[in-house]
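Internal ticket #5521
Category: modeling
Description: The requester needs a full-assembly model to guide mutagenesis choices. All entity lines are attached below as received. Residue total reported by intake: 225.
Assigned to: D.W.
Attached entities:
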Amino acid sequence: NAGVTQTPKFQVLKTGQSMTLQCAQDMNHEYMSWYRQDPGMGLRLIHYSVGAGITDQGEVPNGYNVSRSTTEDFPLRLLSAAPSQTSVYFCASSFSNEQYFGPGTRLTVT
Amino acid sequence: SQELEQSPQSLIVQEGKNLTINCTSSKTLYGLYWYKQKYGEGLIFLMMLQKGGEEKSHEKITAKLDEKKQQSSLHITASQPSHAGIYLCGAAPRGGGTSYGKLTFGQGTILTVHP
């Protein structure tokens, strides 16, 4: 099992560009989430999904879109990147009381 | 919304010393998770506590949940350089578990262990 995988590991964008952060899990978990981590602020929930075709907003959803067409994949789309979206992004998948995190994507918006 | 406050924000100890990190919630805790993160890497699950008074240990790390105080503590005995990193607590929503992947996290505690 690869667990939770994320690509790319690093990305630099210019303001206004769009991109998709990829997340995949091979554990057949129903629940998947996206968090962002900023210095001194812990992790904040962006969007989450309780199954294929079902998504909902978390604490900081503005500027991000998600979709969940399969159990395995949960991509995060930045529609028009802003410097405030410079952060480390973590994807996680959950089953019952266990939540597993991917290695993260470090995004810089200039 | 629930807020978690961790203390201290950073901690520097000499190898072999004991230390404690606290996580205090603004609301009732239904499930409390502890994770460790090394710089530039993902989060590693340490342990999860659900019941008031519950205590769990893994190697030299012990975590307790004080439900009445809405607080959890993480204690490391005889610290080693391998314990260095960022420790994060996360609270599960009412209903228990991370079943919806909606944890609320504290801001993290940065631990440095000098050899």
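Resolution: model delivered.
Comment from assignee: The mean pLDDT of chain B is 91.
Ticket closed.
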